[in-house]
Amino acid sequence: MYIDAHNHLDLYGDKLHKTINIINKKKIKTLACSMDEKSYLLVKNLSKENSLIVPCFGIHPWNAHKNSNYLERFDTYIKETPIIGEIGLDFHWVLEDYKYPHQIKVLEYFFKKANEYNKITNLHTKGAEYEILKLIKQYNLRTPIIHWYSGPFDILKKLLDYGCYFTISVDIGYSKITEEMVKYIPIERILTETDGPTALKWINGKYGYPDYIINIVEKISTLKKITGEEAKEKIYNNFKLLFK
Ligand SMILES: [Zn+2]
């Protein structure tokens, strides 16, 4: 089985049916992240009919300022979701300073709950890698999954020391930093992700379907000097271990 540990199924629109067929045909276990309440309810519904789809509830840092005053109402979702995400901080793409305190407030709320319910988190760290590391330690989080990391290498090392897992995304083969990361991170801590249809588009102009995960596994195997089948097996085992 393939692992897509960070996707956004709500972004496929009229191509959702085709996307789910691909997930079924290629057997891709999918962590279906949400950005807000609406996208969570959509993936939660999809998961009822499909055991390959795992719904994840989170408020994305881009939406934090719109939700920071209503956090208590999310408690039921946080309690029921198998994994919390996508949550995090983004000081890189979000340029308006006034939004940062909202991001921090939302993230601390989710981290507090993640600790309380012993949940795994799926984290966005863009431009805020140090702050995320600090908060992970402060809230004593259980093995977070760091999504599409592109920050400083010294923080990456500290996140690894903490026990974090890293999802390798669609820029493998296009990014020198990602290549260096894949070589550095032990295979036991590597997962794979496609991050919705627009991530690949951003990289090479093509619409991204979940079966792009096969290319990612193949490229990881080349960098790790193992066979594609071995890489697939190891990533699947990492995923299984993570939830034990
Ligand atoms: Zn995402």
From TrEMBL:
Entry keywords, A to Z: Hydrolase, Metal-binding
Q: Which residues are a divalent metal cation 2-binding?
A: 124, 147
Give the domain of life: Bacteria
Q: Where on this chain does a divalent metal cation 1 bind?
A: 6, 8, 86, 195
Q: List the molecular function annotations (GO) for this entry.
A: hydrolase activity, acting on ester bonds; metal ion binding
Q: What is this protein called?
A: TatD family hydrolase
Q: What is the lineage of its organism?
A: Bacteria, Bacillati, Bacillota, Tissierellia, Tissierellales
